[in-house]
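Hello,

Following up on my earlier ticket. Below are the two sequence lines again, exactly as submitted.
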Amino acid sequence: MTAVNAVNRRMALRRYPDGMPRPEDFEVLEGSIPDIADGQVLGRAIYLTVDPYIRVHISPSMSVGYAPTTPIGAPIPGEAVLQVVRSRHPDFAEGDFVAGFGGWQDYCSLPGDSLRRLDRSLAPLSAHLGSLGMPGLTAYAGMTKLAEARAGDTVFVSAALGGVGAVAGQLARLQGCRVVGVSSSPEKCVWAVSELGYDACLDRTAPDFAAQVAAACPDGIDVDFENAGGEVFWAAFNSMKAYGRLIVCGLISGYNLDAPPPGPDMTPHLLRYVAMKRLVMKGLMVADYWDLRPRFLEEVGGMIRDGRFRSKEYVVEGLENAGQALIDMMHGRNFGKTVVRIADDPGSSPP
Amino acid sequence: MTAVNAVNRRMALRRYPDGMPRPEDFEVLEGSIPDIADGQVLGRAIYLTVDPYIRVHISPSMSVGYAPTTPIGAPIPGEAVLQVVRSRHPDFAEGDFVAGFGGWQDYCSLPGDSLRRLDRSLAPLSAHLGSLGMPGLTAYAGMTKLAEARAGDTVFVSAALGGVGAVAGQLARLQGCRVVGVSSSPEKCVWAVSELGYDACLDRTAPDFAAQVAAACPDGIDVDFENAGGEVFWAAFNSMKAYGRLIVCGLISGYNLDAPPPGPDMTPHLLRYVAMKRLVMKGLMVADYWDLRPRFLEEVGGMIRDGRFRSKEYVVEGLENAGQALIDMMHGRNFGKTVVRIADDPGSSPP
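Thanks for your patience. The regenerated structure is below:
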């Protein structure tokens, strides 16, 4: 039997963040290794995910049905890449690599039926939390089911290198679209163009950012794949072409708001232009699209394996740094999809 | 040949309204009867339309491609019911009843190809500017092409008795939906229920209006047919069910805003709920749906003729009162779809 530590560390909330999370909102707690019941497996986490939606789960004011608020002291929720160390489920054996909603902790017990087995031949394990994980599937669902993008369309991706955005942008490029991305530094923008194939990528910290968006989309935007909100959203919205589609997937700029920001109130402007330009705005949640996963893994996984599609993770080392990794991501200090490595990948060294 | 007056009166802008239009923003001017070229007809107006979208056309700050700003001194634009008094188009003869974009004036010259012939057997002439006109077609397009309403759905109609709303509400009822309307007085609400078949109709001037909306839609709203904006919009939005559709057709509450209203800014809230509830928001402009007109007239026209569908116009007498009629409509003082009668209907008295 695989050795299991005596202690299960978890990264928990010490208190609910007030606005932008701070390091002291988080703390590492220790507990015992969970038992497993029939049908469950015990997993040891190798990689944890750090995604913008986690901010929603740690805010009581933002809780809605789909996202119950994380209790103080409980592990921060999120998907993890796990290795099975005990199994009471017939489909899984010790040593298997899976992904499941284990949260930010060393060990978790999960129903085997909730796990997905990882195909290590496609990409490194970390990619299964990014381009081949929930963020990638989110982008795939948005681009294939909601965006209605046609070759030649201008597609705007508001977080060009993010877990979702990098996949959305590359899918749009492969559909023959002109793809304009946004990131938070000149270096990342250069990388988005040279490595991900964006036609243009704009630095949202530039003083003339909105004018740059208008200039980069001279014929307007057909599809806005929205993960930002705030000023980035408005720059795109004001350049939308008639009949354009806005895929509202994430709003990282709004996740630290516990109350609506000061005015003026721009909703009348928004609604007026939705009507006049016949825009279509569609909310996207990946939970509606689990059935797309096999096709997604075949298509995107195949392209990653063959080198035709880039997956870039920004790997932070150590469970104790997961809170800071979330903060850094919300400031745009990451370079790619953030994951936290909390244990060695036993398969990463040659046998 | 039909007699033609010596003078063509028009209701024009004296100046652009600042916020809510005032009577002194309008004036009646006189000019000559227009000539007609080959392919055109000269029409004498019997009924003029008064619709919320006219407010957009008389505001320089709101002009977008589809709605060029009306010049000072020019007739206010809008559809009219006309009788042909001269024709140089092979399809039209003197005496024919047509509708066309003649604007607020006694006489207009229009290309025959832009006119639609009116079927007087379906309904009184005035209805061809309402339930059988552009507003009715707008509602028909929204309910048949965008709303995706299924029997049992709750449909919310924010202007229950309006030119668009009365048709949307009745179509929704005929589709087996539960229909909740909004109007601006208890009397109108009673009428909407008893005559238009709304399941409930709420008075937007009630102090507890938002709570009434929530109570009248205990399972949430599947379709919001939006013609109001402002507080009525938010009452509906906050009751939207997951996967609900918002048809953004009109925003009468916002048409008098020359600048965004004071905050807080509710767009982050709006975008967050669009994502989390997977809402779909769709802009609607009738100009995209002229091809639906034959089917619309057959279906809705047939039901009006047979008494299964109600059309209610609020008839204001006299061109000189058209400006006030627009103001009254924006205050909700009308009772049904507003039209202005500026000449006798020669067919209205028995022969």
